[in-house]
Structure formats: structure tokens, C-alpha cells
């Protein structure tokens, strides 16, 4: 394994624009991309497309919807249900879907593409990391038609767009990104590359959230991309099993749930994966026995109650968590009573 530091050279900084070709995927990070998204898409041969977005996102990129053959509003709700509802409204010959928004928008485009075969272009407006993974649900009622998970072929990452949320929401989104790196470190699928990117991304996120960081967008955006890459490669275990289930069953908001669970989840993993947690703690500027406090200071979690979780559905959530096969990807998987303690402490 490796430490959380990477050798970057004296002139490198996390806000530097770049283009990264990774097999069939291209990631473009460019400050100010929001002002010329149609031009950037055309530069990458994306001329005809249908757009998935939200009213909030489109307000930050005037003109993008004017170049789409059709624009689909992605409402709140589960990705599986949203994707199912949008399937019939898409053009039969749509070859490219452009997803402009947060994780729900991008995951919806991936879900639809798993049925339609369209290519997906992701333009993230949060730190969700969805643009870097093939992790998503399939459309409800059409699971049998899915060809398999979809990973976006083109990612256009504008740090200003990705960090445009209000402070509390931004910190919650940053903890969602940090959780991607942390949870991927100790799975059976973790590897040297996923660990390097996880630790480097975690360091970038933690440093960018320090109070003395006047400009932090580049560090947060690149950290989220690194951690998204890490979880796509190394996959996930206890933290994401708990959070995904709580969001789906108890109705809490996604980023805030991640923010609230992450401190306790990493404290739980300290003795189960001591080397990985020691390296993670070093990356975020902490000691292993202080990792939970450090994460809480960075994320300022609201708690599950404030995030909208329905406590009356906790037993159902615990049943579903215990049934998830990914729970076994954690060293010494916790039992029901330990998971209950983790969740209750985050309320």
C-alpha cells in the first residue's frame, strides 16, 4: 500500500485543467466549463443528444438545453423509479444522453442507458462521484432488459459547478466523496491503484475544507474524482451498505446520510482494518483513534434525524442491511447489534 501523499511536482496544483483518457472514458477538468458546455461537447463529437437535468442545474449553464434535441427534468425520488418513468419519453434513436446535475441525475442517465444502449456524458454539479462509476440501479420493472451497468464515456468537470452548493450542502457532498475513498480501502477488490487514488483524493478533500483555504474548488473537485475512481475500482463495504439502505428505506437525504454515518463507520473499521484506517487517518490529517472526530469536524454532520430519516422504519432497514451481500466485503463484518449502535449514534 501507499501513503496518502503523491508526488506532483513543484508547479502542480489541484485546480489545473487537464484531460485524462482512461480506456474508453475521457475526463476533462476545466475551470469555467459551464460558460461553453455546448462548445466542449462539440469538441468531443457530441452534437446530437437528449439532456437530463434539473431547473437548479440549468440555471448555472444557460444555453445548454437549447442545444439538446429534448430536455428531461429529473425530479426527486428513487433512481429506479425516475428512470422507469423517463424511458418511454426518450427518442427511440437517442444515441447520447447528457446528464447535467448531481448524482441522482447522472445515475438516472446511466440506468436509462443500461436499457437503451445510449452513451452517457456526465457533467456533475456536486461531489457525488457518480460520473466516475458504473454503480447505479436499473429502471423499475425493466431490470431484465438491462444489458449491464453503465459508466459515462465523457466527464466534463468544472470545479466551480461541482462546488456551487451552499456551505452545509457542500460539506455533506464532500463527505459523500470522502466516504468513497474510505470505504474502498479495505474490500477484497482494493488494489494499489484504487488505494493510491482513495488516499490522494481523501487528502485533497480534507485539505480543501480547512478554514484557511480561500480557494478550494479545485481540490474538492479533483478529490471527488479520485475517490469516485477508487470506489469504482475497489467497490464498497459497510459504510455504503448502511447509507444506501437508510436512504432507500428510512427516507433520509443521500449526502447528509453519508456525512452522518461516516465518522462512526470509520471508527468501527479502525480495529478491523488497522493499516488501511491508519493510512486514511494520515491522509486526512488525523490519528487513527481520532479519525471519527476529524471527519465530524470536516463534515459537520446534521444527524440522521435532521436528514429526514424515519426512525419507525429502522428495524426494516436493519433487516435489509443484514441481507446485503456487500456487507461481507468488510473485514470481520459487524452483526446486527453493532450496526444498530452505529446508526443510533448517528441519529
Can you describe this structure?
The chain has about 350 residues and is an alpha/beta fold. The protein has helices at about 35-45, 55-60, 80-85, 105-115, 160, 165-185, 190-210, 215-235, 240-250, 255-270, 275-285, 290-300, 315-325, 335-345; strands at about 20, 25-30, 50-55, 70-75, 95-100, 120-125, 155. Helix content is about 45%, strand content about 10%. Strands 1-2-7-6-5-3-4 form a seven-stranded mixed beta sheet. A hairpin with a 2-residue loop joins β1 (about 20) and β2 (about 25-30). α7 (about 190-210) runs parallel beside α11 (about 275-285) and α9 crosses α13 (about 315-325). The chain is globular, with a radius of gyration of 19 Å.
Question: What is the gist of this entry?
Answer:
The chain is of the alpha/beta class and 347 residues long. It has helices spanning 37-43, 55-58, 79-87, 103-116, 159-162, 167-183, 192-208, 217-234, 238-250, 254-269, 274-283, 291-299, 314-323, 336-345, and strands at 18-22, 25-29, 50-53, 70-73, 96-101, 119-124, 154-157.
Amino acid at each position: 500500500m501507499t501513503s496518502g501523499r503523491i508526488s506532483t511536482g513543484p508547479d502542480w496544483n489541484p485546480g489545473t485543467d487537464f484531460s485524462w483518457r482512461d480506456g474508453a472514458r475521457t475526463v476533462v477538468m476545466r475551470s469555467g466549463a459551464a460558460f461553453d458546455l455546448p462548445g466542449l461537447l462539440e469538441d468531443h463529437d457530441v452534437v446530437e443528444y437528449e439532456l437530463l437535468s434539473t431547473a437548479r442545474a440549468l440555471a448555472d449553464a444557460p444555453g445548454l438545453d437549447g442545444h439538446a434535441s429534448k430536455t428531461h427534468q429529473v425530479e426527486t425520488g428513487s433512481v429506479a423509479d425516475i428512470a422507469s418513468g423517463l424511458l418511454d419519453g426518450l427518442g427511440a434513436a437517442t444515441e447520447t444522453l447528457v446528464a447535467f446535475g448531481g448524482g441522482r441525475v447522472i445515475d438516472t442517465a446511466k440506468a436509462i442507458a443500461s436499457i437503451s444502449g445510449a452513451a452517457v456524458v456526465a457533467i456533475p454539479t456536486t461531489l457525488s462521484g457518480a460520473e466516475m462509476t458504473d454503480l447505479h440501479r436499473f429502471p423499475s420493472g425493466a431490470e431484465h432488459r438491462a444489458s449491464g451497468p453503465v459508466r459515462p464515456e465523457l466527464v466534463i468537470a468544472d470545479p466551480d459547478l461541482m462546488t456551487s452548493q451552499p456551505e452545509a450542502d457542500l460539506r455533506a457532498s464532500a463527505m459523500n466523496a470522502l466516504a468513497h475513498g474510505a470505504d474502498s480501502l479495505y474490500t477484497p477488490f482494493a488494489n494499489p491503484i484504487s488505494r493510491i487514488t482513495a488516499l490522494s483524493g481523501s487528502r485533497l478533500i480534507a485539505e480543501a475544507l480547512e478554514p484557511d483555504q480561500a480557494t478550494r474548488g479545485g481540490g474538492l473537485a479533483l478529490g471527488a474524482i479520485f475517490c469516485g475512481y477508487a470506489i469504482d475500482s475497489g467497490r464498497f463495504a459497510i459504510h455504503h451498505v448502511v447509507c444506501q439502505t437508510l436512504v432507500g428505506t428510512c427516507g433520509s437525504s443521500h449526502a447528509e446520510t453519508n456525512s452522518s454515518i461516516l465518522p462512526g463507520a470509520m471508527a468501527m473499521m479502525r480495529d478491523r482494518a488497522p493499516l488501511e484506517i491508519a493510512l486514511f487517518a494520515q491522509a486526512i490529517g488525523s490519528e487513527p483513534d481520532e479519525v471519527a472526530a476529524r471527519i465530524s469536524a470536516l463534515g459537520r454532520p446534521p444527524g440522521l434525524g435532521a436528514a429526514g430519516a424515519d426512525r419507525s422504519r429502522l428495524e426494516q432497514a436493519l433487516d435489509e442491511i443484514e441481507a446485503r451481500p456487500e456487507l461481507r466485503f468488510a473485514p470481520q463484518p459487524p452483526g446486527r447489534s453493532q450496526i444498530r449502535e452505529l446508526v443510533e449514534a448517528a441519529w
